[in-house]
Amino acid sequence: MALLLIRQDKKYDSWLQALKKDAHFKVYTPETIKDPAEIKMALTWQAPVGSYANYPNLQVIGSMGAGVDHLFEDPSLPQDVTLTRVVDEKLSGDMQEFVLTLCLSHIKNLNSYAQLQEQTLWKPLKYSRISEVSVGILGFGTLGQAVGKKLSSVGFQVSGWSQSTKDVLGIKSFTGDQLDAFLEGCDILVCLLPLTEDTRGILNARLFKKLPQGAYLINVARGGHLNETDLITALDNGNISGAALDVFQTEPLPEDHAFWGREEILMTPHVASVSNAASVAPQVIENYRRMEAGEELLDQVSREKRY
Ligand code: OXD
């Protein structure tokens, strides 16, 4: 019995290396598999639609990353398999560092200075101190809480919003219908929500208006959360002063996209926190063992909640 790796980008090397080192099962890719009946588990990232159709003994599909929206984009995702995702210290640590860097860069105007340097302009700008700045984490799950704790530990005033209350020392937790109250207190809003039908397009004109005038937006979740046209309007009318975007509706971002021309937007190519095969492999191997032993799997995904 075996595990199948499936990635649209076919970047298999690090995963093959990491899994083959310690796994007691065989590991294939769609290019190397000979007998589809051998496959019991698939580990995937943005698999082409219909990828799971030909594996009669498939029991588990695991996302290679924290996000699982890519799984549900496939209408032929088998109904009777268990779904898992990655919860990993390196993934959380990388996200903590990335968001912290963006918050500091924003309050000390580093993006603006990079633009001014291009224009050979010497122009001191007003900066803020960490202790004066409140950061709201929209999506206060595993990654959101890790980021919140890091920001709080360096002195930012942090709050979090999620469906259920989270008890994190020093961080105010808002839930469900308290979204407006949460937004009112955010100088910086960090989106770390899962992408579901309820959260698609949530970063829109209505939400921006609830933020303090001139708030800063950081989206490190999914491009589908952001109404890109509404962001341009909010930047034009000063509702939002700037944004750091790591994710986009279409990736890579098309060359003619309006965002390229906006100085107030700092863009990175979906690199905030990238799954590390060597770090993730032990939990995949453990889940394979649990599957074979009929035990409960780690980091299961709810089909109902879609995260
Ligand atoms: C993830 C990602 O979900 O890299 O892990 O976006």
Shape assignment: elongated
- Give a list of the ligands: oxalic acid
What top-tier CATH class of the largest domain fits best? Answer: Alpha Beta
Per CATH, what is the topology of the largest domain?
A: Rossmann fold
Distance between the termini: 28 Å
Class from secondary-structure proportions: alpha/beta
Which CATH-level-2 architecture of the largest domain?
A: 3-Layer(aba) Sandwich
- The average pLDDT score comes to 97
- Strand content is 15-25%
Let me know the number of strands. Answer: 12
With helices defined by DSSP (H or I, 4 residues minimum), what is the helix count?
9
CATH homologous superfamily assignment of the largest domain? NAD(P)-binding Rossmann-like Domain
Q: Helix proportion of residues, in percent?
A: 25-40%
Strand order of the largest sheet: 8-7-6-9-10-11-12
Poorly predicted runs: none
Order of helices and strands: EHEEEHEHHEHEEHEHEHEEH
Structural domain count: 2
Radius of gyration, taken over Cα atoms and rounded to an integer in Å = 21 Å
Described by strand count, sense and barrel closure, the largest sheet is: 7 strands, parallel
